[in-house]
Write a structure and sequence with these properties.
Largest sheet: none
Strand content: under 5%
Structural class: mainly alpha
Bound molecules: zinc ion
Distance between the termini: 26 Å
Number of strands: 0
Number of domains: 1
Helix content: 40-55%
Radius of gyration: 15 Å
């Protein structure tokens, strides 16, 4: 099995997992009314209270999930 095959297999496995759990893509979270990083209530449909929180959240998702 070469690298391309392994990558394809990994992508298929990820897609399968997303379908199984009905999960949205990590990079496109839905606004919840609260900052996704620190939980601060937000008046509008933003997903984070600040660019810092967005960056923290993106880092966490990229490295810890
Ligand atoms: Zn925040």
């Amino acid at each position: 099995m070469d690298i391309a095959d392994q990558t394809q297999e990994r992508i298929e496995r990820l897609t399968e997992a997303e379908q199984r759990f009905g999960a949205a893509k990590p990079e496109s979270p839905q606004p919840t009314g609260y900052c996704l990083n620190c939980g601060e209530p937000l008046a509008d449909m933003r997903r984070w209270c600040s660019a810092d929180c967005r960056d923290d959240w993106e880092w966490f998702n990229a490295h810890c999930l």
